[in-house]
Amino acid sequence: MAEVTKQYLTYNTIHKTVKKMAQTIISSGFDPDVIVAIGTGGFIPARILKTFITRPILTVGLSYYDENNQPKEAPEKIQWIDEVETKLKGKRILLVDEVDDSRVTLEYCLRELLRHKPKEMAVAVLHNKNKVKRGVIPDEITHYFAGEVLEDNWICYPWDADNIDEQDRQALGHN
Fold first, then answer.
1. Pairwise CA distance, residues 150 & 160, whole Å
2. Full-prediction pTM beyond 0.90?
3. Nearest Cα to Cα of residue 114 among 146, 83, 84
4. How far apart are CA 77 and CA 79, in angstroms?
C-alpha cells in the first residue's frame, strides 16, 4: 500500500488564502446575504471570511466519512438550519467548506439548499483538490471560488492538530 503524502498548513497560511479568496468573491460582484458553513471543516474558513465579507453565518452539519475516514454510501444531515425557509428563501447564499475533494458533500448540501429557493448561490472552498470528482456542482450555482488548487494529498489542517507546535513545524518544513 502506498504511503499517503500529507500536506500540513498553518493558520497563518489559511488566513492569507481566505483573504485572497474574499477579494476574488468581492471583485466578482457576488454579494451574499448569508454565509452557510459546512461543519466541521467549513467553520473556521467561514469565520475568517466573515472578517472580509461581513455577513451572518449559518451552519449545517453533514457526515460523509466514517470513523476510519472512509466515505459512507451518501452524506447525511447531522444538523440543519432552524426556520430554514425564512432564512434562505430569496437570499444570496455563499456555501463554505474547507476542501472540495470528491465533491459529493458539496453536491448534497447544494441540492438541499436549492430546495429552499434562494435567489442565487455560490460555493467557496479553501482548497480544491486536483482530481476527478464524483459529485457535480448543480447548474443553478452561479459562482465557484477556490482559495487554492492542491494536489490530491491528505491535507492536515491546523484545527485537526492535537499539537499545534508540531503542526507548524511540519507545515514550515522543520521536521
1. 18
2. no
3. 84
4. 6
Q: How far is CA 26 from CA 19, 30, 43, 100, 149, in A?
A: 11, 6, 20, 21, 19
Annotation marks residue 160 as catalytic: no
Establish how many alpha carbons lie within 13 A of residue 73's alpha carbon, considering only the half-sphere containing its beta carbon.
Answer: 0
* Catalytic residue, candidates 82, 101, 160, 162: 101
Q: Which domains does the chain have, with CATH numbers?
A: 6-171 (3.40.50.2020)
Cβ–Cβ < 8 Å for 127, 98 = yes
Q: Residue 60 is placed in which grid cell? A: 449545517
Read off the pLDDT of residues 16-74 as tens digits, 9 standing for 90 and up. Answer: 999 999 999 999 999 999 999 998 789 999 999 999 999 999 988 666 566 666 666 76
